[in-house]
């Protein structure tokens, strides 16, 4: 069900059943083996009853950019998804101003929350830096913060909720990212 790989699965299965020459898992998925391995590890670390791989699929095709001293990036982050591209390449030790506007819910009948979330951290905006198929620990962000990047890489963002309870979440926030002076 992972949209990153599902379109290739049925043709591969048919080719294997028909014993087509050259058809193998390696020939179809070999070029994305590192991506599959990363997502599989993420799945094993977060799976539970109700987990949906379509909501947690990694955004491999997202574009990222370095920020200049006066530029900014705005991204919409959904409550009903796993890690989402912040579209910014961060530099280790550099500071980034992050502000988040809007509200979301972490339960169908739940209250509207801003990016600070609840007192226990659920519903809070968090980030992580992705580099060389490794994801940093979660970095608490909230409505307004200055993030000091723990390493260089791609910034990813998400709403804190139990991974297998994302399906009933609703709403999105707009996150603005600027390099701090």
In words, what does this structure look like?
The strands form two sheets. Strands 1, 3, 5, 6, 7 and 9 form a six-stranded mixed sheet that branches. The chain is an alpha+beta fold. The protein has four helices and ten strands.
In short:
The chain is built from four helices and ten strands, in the order ααααββββββββββ. It has 181 residues and is α+β, with helices and mostly antiparallel strands. The strands form two sheets. Strands 1, 3, 5, 6, 7 and 9 form a six-stranded mixed β-sheet that branches. A four-stranded antiparallel β-sheet has the order 2-10-4-8, with no helix packed on it.
Average pLDDT: 94
Name the helix and strand elements from N-terminus to C-terminus, one letter apiece.
Answer: HHHHEEEEEEEEEE
Instruction: Tell me how many strands there are.
Output: 10
Estimated radius of gyration: 18 Å
Report the β-strand fraction as a percent range: 25-35%
Query: Helix segment count?
Result: 4
**Separation of termini?**
43 Å
Shape: globular
The major β-sheet equals:
6 strands, mixed
Features:
19% helix, alpha+beta, single chain, globular, 33% strand, four-stranded antiparallel sheet
SSE topology:
Blueprint: H1 6-17, H2 25-29, H3 33-46, H4 53-56, E1 65-66, E2 72-78, E3 84-90, E4 95-105, E5 125-131, E6 134-135, E7 139-140, E8 144-148, E9 153-159, E10 170-179
